[in-house]
Amino acid sequence: MQTIADRIIILWGWRRFFLALFLGALSALALPPFGAFPVLWITFTLFVWLIDGAVGSANAGFLRRLLPAAFIGWAFGFGYFLAGLWWIGAAFLVDADQFAWLMPFAVVAAPAGLALFWAFGAALARAFWPEGWPRILVFAIAMALAEWLRGHVLTGFPWNAVGYALAREPVMMQPASLFGLWGLTLAAFVIFAAPAVLADRRGAGRFVFVGLALVLLAADAGYGAYVLSGATDATVPKVHIRIVQPNVDERDKWKAGQGDALLKRYLEMSDGTTAPDRSGVGSATHVIWPESAFPFLLTERPDALAAIAALLPEGTTLVTGAARAERGVGAAPVQYFNSIYVIDDKGEITAAYDKVRLVPFGEYLPLAGFFDALGIRQLIEVPGGFSAGTRRVTLPIPGAPPVGPLICYEIIFPGAVVDPDNRPGWLLNLTNDAWFGDTPGPYQHLLQARLRAIEEGLPVVRAANTGISAIIDSYGRVRQSLGLGSAGLVDGDLPVSLPPTLYARFGDFVFLGLMIAAALAAGWGQLTSKLKRN
Asked: How many domains does the chain have?
């Protein structure tokens, strides 16, 4: 009598493809804002069974024998990324007259490209595919490696790595301080794929392995509970943050004549005059405005700097996102940067940071000559695109610990959010998620910021134009926040930092150690299985 596993394993052709595609799309329910991570016990289990049956012809060459597994991995990954990243298409509707025609291509092309990493992972796993429970470890190692490569190859794009499925609540996030996102990703593949071995017809070890996978999940939660039991709500003395969330529609921001009105809005909100329950800047020592706050160059508007000086009481500092221009010498073109300015109570810019990691097709156009010929331009229309800053820096902030500035998606890169030679006391993430409207994107972005806080042991202050703005402590707990699509203020104190975590000290070498340990366990399991059969 055929079991469900048998029926999955013998599927072939388009039925196999569409099942893998559906399972991948279903897996996206584990991501924010849904967080239905138990679905992965079904989808990853069936993923393993699909790879069980993905065997090429015995007469084919080695690489050709791996093509069926690569095909399954690509289909599963395409479904996962399509369902998890469809919202990027909303950015092409901001200036619909020029970019709407590109939306279908972007929504499909990005997931299709990212799915190639999962095709590699599935093929790699199949190349070393053992029998029994060791194949789950081989699967987890190969897929975790594929996810790590996705986060690093070319510019890298680790958005929605599978490890985030385990990081739904602070109690489950804390192991990130030890192993980082990639360690959580390896654990997630093991935990959620483990039930696949229950369909095996022999080997008592399969029950032990599933039990150990559940112990791993319990250990994740147990460690989190232990860490949080000793967590405090301590804050940095005399540092009081006010985040301004103006909720400005991206379509309105760039309309002619909106610059002065937008500046007025920021000033009034910061002073509390538009919020009846507020009275002036009050006790705020640091006012935070989001990414690219103005549709003009702040350094070319002395009246704007004067208005900021008039707003800020003595000793109060403004940190804001703004475009910066660097004039070339002679006939050299002007360079534009997506920047952060630190402005004192006299309206003087005391420090600045230029964004290091730019968004492909958003802030610059890779292979510009090729895409120009196709009529494709970057979404933010700056002549020649933005230029990238040279290095990660730690900015001095009057009256507060030095800060690690991060603009928009710079915060999604594990192990690459601080200056390694000058550790900051907190992280500041200025972003403009207005491009993506009321979609899962901003919720996914917030979760990634929370995990960076835990990995580095540093609080994160997040200012987002349309939300979600938040003050996050070093344990990834949201202290104060303002929801998506709301205009208002987030007032709160700056949480204290923790000593450098294991992950902050050793980075991805910890993940490498876990991968080696998993490989040794898989090899031992395969060897003992062969000895028993002989």
From this structure: 2
Between the alpha carbon of residue 238 and those of residues 60, 392, 493, 496, the distances in Å are: 70, 27, 8, 12
Q: Is 381 a catalytic residue?
A: no
Does residue 291 have an active-site annotation? Answer: yes
- Of the candidates 204, 203, 162, the one whose C-alpha atom is nearest the C-alpha of residue 183 is 162
pLDDT of 25 > 90? The answer is: yes
Domain membership flag for residue 502: no
Query: What digits encode the pLDDT tens for the residues 215-230?
Result: 999 999 999 999 999 9
- How far is it, in rounded angstroms, from Cα 201 to Cα 278? 67
pLDDT attached to residue 278: 44
Residue 455 is a catalytic residue: no
- How does DSSP assign 231-288, residue by residue? ----EEEEEEEEEEE----HHHHTSTTHHHHHHHHHHHHHHTTT-TT--SSTT-SEEE
Start-to-end CA distance of the chain, whole Å, equals 28
CB atoms within 10 A of CB 104: 11
What is the model's pLDDT at position 419? Answer: 94
Q: Please, what is the average pLDDT of the chain? A: 88
pLDDT in tens, 31-85: 999 999 999 999 999 999 999 988 766 666 667 789 999 999 999 999 999 999 9
- For residue 420, the enclosing domain spans 235-495
Catalytic, out of 363, 408, 410, 456: 408
Q: Which residues contact 101 (CB under 8 A, 6 or more apart)?
A: none
Q: How confident is the model at residue 280 (pLDDT cuts 50, 70, 90)?
A: low
**377 and 424 within one domain:** yes
Instruction: Fill in the amino acid letter for 246.
Output: P
Which residue among 291, 363, 455, 456 is the active-site one? 291
Question: Percentage of the chain surpassing pLDDT 90?
Answer: 66
Q: Is the pLDDT of residue 204 over 70?
A: no
133-172 burial string, b = 16+ CB within 10 Å, else e? bbbbbbbbbbbbbbbbebbeeeeebbbbbbbbbbbbebbb
Do both 524 and 482 map to the same domain?
no
Tell me which of 147, 250, 253, 355 is the catalytic residue: 355
> What is the number of residues in the chain?
534
Q: Report the CATH number that the domain containing residue 362 is assigned in CATH.
A: 3.60.110.10
